[in-house]
Amino acid sequence: MKPDNFPKDIQPFIVPQPQGDLFYQCLGCESTYPIKELLYVCPECGQVLLIHNRDFDNLKKIPGKTWQRIFDYRRMLNIPALKGIYRYHEFIGPNIPLNSIIYLGEGHTPVVEANSRLQARSGVRFYYKNDGQNPSASFKDRGMASALSYIKFLVDTGLASNIIAICASTGDTSASAALYASYLSSDIKSAVLLPYKKVTPQQLSQPLGSGARVFEIPGVFDDCMKIVEKLSQEYPVALLNSKNAWRILGQESYAYEIAQDFEYEMQHKVVVVPIGNAGNISAVMNGFLKFYDAGIIDFLPRIIGVQSEHADPVFRYYLEPDKARRVFKPVTVKPSVAQAAMIGNPVSMPRVIAIVNRYNQISGKQNVFFAQVTEQSIMDWSLEANRNGHIACTQGGESLAGLVKSVEQGIVTDQDIAIVDATAHAIKFSGFQDQYFQKAIPHEYKIQSSQDLINEPILVMPENKEKIPAQGSPLSDDDFKLFADDISRSIAKALKLEKNDN
């Protein structure tokens, strides 16, 4: 739909122009820095950064109801730059002109209500938000679209050139970074560091297919992250991990989409997300805070962050009820089927602490909770979800397990509606499903395969094994008729089918 066909009072807002005065602010010493260069940590104290807009109060001059109409009408636009996360341009990267924005189909992933059976089993009404339906099949594309659009903006304005983008990854970040960098291949090259034999074959294939330089490093993700941090400090590279504050801005779109998908009614809503490097939960909370501050939503939804007992530093931090006595301690991770969340020292932990405090303070109550779940529950709920029409990865299983745990603890009640995050597509982690069905998951995962959830293919062979079709060697018509009759009888018997009367 063309902007000229929109209501007159909305037309001036439909296609945004560059605006705002953005700056980095340190979460430690609160120093501020201009955004005309790539910064990942504070040059003064080394703490992580957030990006703020000095002109944010100008956005509040537009009534919240008007913002709702602006976003709802933008749904009908055919302008590529506004089809994805930048539908919320003023709240993500208001300084970036539309011609610098990269759009590969990210954002606005479907929100699918669970069927009655799965809701009854979980004890609450809930929806999956399937972020595995992003271009690289994970939620990481939200942050990468933001980070790479900013880098393209720097290139377009002559502030940067010949950029080497680098990231550490448990799989999803590398796939996304390589994909978006490949789109800008003349201006940017990508390199990724992966923990050797700690990512699935599907995830490894993605950055290779996108042309990235892939380096496998002994150890776990946290070790790769330390090397990437060293490289970003000592060499002219662009860091694309969630230490990059532009990534956080892009991932805030997840919160904006939920608000819009539920008609901006956030009362009695619960948003459940897995915690890996803690960038996503930080972004989701920050997004809801911005919409609340601008009057677009009237309530802040409850937030539940979920971790496996095999990688649970954030959960452990919040076990201490007294804020003054909390001390963050990294943990040594154990193997987890929620492989993308297997991080013992999340770089965004300072963001979590700061934003949780503000979120609870503005809510006037505790409104952010953390759940610890077992590996068994992660795997079982992942399989249960996918047996009921979803495409949830193991991190999506982790989220659902956390929701069920929260229902049991009374944090979530039957008055609530939950939105559960499936961060990636189930196919990325199908190897764990195969191991589960074959009862071959290594013992260190502490997972026992339930016969009720095991599903394996059944090979059906005819009695006459000498006469079977093969590629390049078809059967004669008579032989194939015998073959088909034999196979059909075997399948009908297995399915307990009765022959038609006629």
**Percentage of residues in DSSP E strands:** 5-15%
Give the helix proportion (percent range).
Answer: 25-40%
Task: Provide the CATH architecture of the largest domain.
Answer: 3-Layer(aba) Sandwich
Which class of the largest domain in CATH terms?
Answer: Alpha Beta
End-to-end distance: 55 Å
Number of separate structural domains: 3
Rg result: 25 Å
Mean pLDDT: 94
Supply the number of helical segments: 18
> From the helix content, strand content and strand pairing, which structural class follows?
alpha/beta
- Contiguous uncertain segments of 5+ residues: none
Q: Under CATH, the topology of the largest domain is which? A: Rossmann fold
Number of strands: 13
Strand order of the largest sheet: 4-5-13-10-11-12
Largest sheet: 6 strands, mixed
- The global form is globular
Outline:
The chain is α/β, with parallel strands linked by helices.
Which labels suit this protein?
4-stranded parallel beta sheet, 37% helix, alpha/beta, 502 residues, 3 domains, Rossmann fold, 6-stranded mixed beta sheet
Describe this structure in words.
- Helices cover 37% and strands 14% of the residues.
- The protein has helices spanning 11-14, 56-59, 64-74, 89-92, 116-122, 140-156, 172-183, 201-209, 221-234, 245-251, 253-261, 279-293, 313-317, 349-363, 375-386, 394-408, 430-437, 477-494; strands at residues 22-26, 32-34, 49-53, 111-113, 125-130, 163-168, 188-195, 213-217, 238-239, 269-274, 302-308, 368-373, 417-422.
- The strands form three sheets. The chain has a six-stranded mixed β-sheet, sandwiched between helices. The chain has a four-stranded parallel β-sheet with strand order 8-7-6-9.
- Strand 6, helix 7 (172-183) and strand 7 (188-195) form a beta-alpha-beta unit.
- The protein is globular and about 80 Å long.
